[in-house]
Amino acid sequence: MRTRPLKVALLGCGVVGSEVARIMTTHADDLTARIGAPVELAGVAVRRPSKVRAGIDPALVTTDATALVKRGDIDVVIEVIGGIEPARALITTAFEHGASVVSANKALIAQDGAALHATAEQHGRDLYYEAAVAGAIPLIRPLRESLAGDKVNRVLGIVNGTTNFILDKMDSTGAGYQEALDEATALGYAEADPTADVEGFDAAAKAAILAGIAFHTRVRLDDVYREGMTEVTAADFASAKRMGCTIKLLAICERAAHGGSVTARVHPAMIPLSHPLASVREAYNAVFVEAEAAGQLMFYGPGAGGAPTASAVLGDLVAVCRNKLGEATGPGDSAYTQLPVSPMGEVVTRYHISLDVADKPGVLAQVATVFAEHGVSIDTVRQTGKDGEASLVVVTHRAPDAALSGTVEALRRLDTVRGVASIMRVEGE
Ligand code: NDP
Ligand code: HSE
Fold first, then answer.
1. I need a labelling partner for 28 at 20 to 30 A (CA). Which of 304, 314, 369, 387 fits?
2. pTM as predicted
């Protein structure tokens, strides 16, 4: 057992960082035994130094994060500030000054993961980010290590705790969107700017990271088709219920059947109540991974929150410290293929379309003709009349997204169609 401690710099001491510091202190003896050397918190960089931080020695607190990572005696930097800058510059400087890095920053890894991995490799350092996707759930390591001998074809799941919390509250208690978002923010689940959660940017960043690792290719944030959940209404939930479904914000990454391309998308979708994802409540996340030999695997657990996320950070800290003592590095970037990312128009799935139409003879036939003209086959139609108007809900068979978009455009041009109330994909059947 080495007695000289490994020195850790903590960048950020908010929801996640404060829990990382707490666990490092309360579990110090176990961490020492598991790593084979003590770990010492050598500095904590924050924005507001005067804020009282329970359990943190004020002498360790600094606003000069750059000086901290440049000290030269830091073994591991934990970056839990978030955002692109200064996090990116600090991580790069950390590698240049001899430290390995553990980060929870999905926005940064999705945008600059390739460059950061290259810098880490150039300096012989580790870059670990288990906490960046799905909070406490071990997902990056199973994909990168346990499934390294298999071929992953699909990753599908709920990867944002805030939006799952909001959708769950809207569905189960009838809570309003803003009320549920405020509660998720108070519980520490939401990003500094919750737009990242509700507009699907956070889930898209996670999808880009997951697709890149799962398919060993480069998937950029811009490659991920993204729709947020701000337009999901109580009427959508009522409609979903009538179909025996609920609504979840899903991230879906797929290898095309021919194997030559991949897709990655984030959007709200109806899923049957019998599907395991339908029972994922509150800020929990769940991800299905389908691999050729392993079959279907499901990963489930807390997807956000200080302590759960800190658990994943600490797991990485132990791994990186062990590597350091063994004078080794862990697995790096594995994007050795260059599979094209197909556009959303090529994705094939089912759709639930809700239309407001005139309630008169021939309207249904007119609508059905538009679907037929675009090669979209109708599975079911439900009509509810009200004062000369009717609400028409059409559920389709599987069709390419481009065909559905063409259908909706043409429907909007019909005089008898007063409006397209909602369009939602139906998944998991
Ligand atoms: P918080 O906003 O709670 O904490 C951010 C911390 O960074 C604060 O301590 C803040 O200082 C500090 N900080 C901000 N700017 C600077 C700067 N320029 N220099 C030094 N310190 C700075 O964020 P979270 O803890 O929620 O999130 C941190 C990271 O973890 C993000 O990347 C997030 O996406 C990720 N993450 C978060 C999860 C969660 O459930 N919250 C789950 C999974 C990942 P001060 O305290 O003085 O304001
Ligand atoms: N804001 C994120 C979420 C934190 O709600 O899932 C976890 O990555």
1. 304
2. 0.97
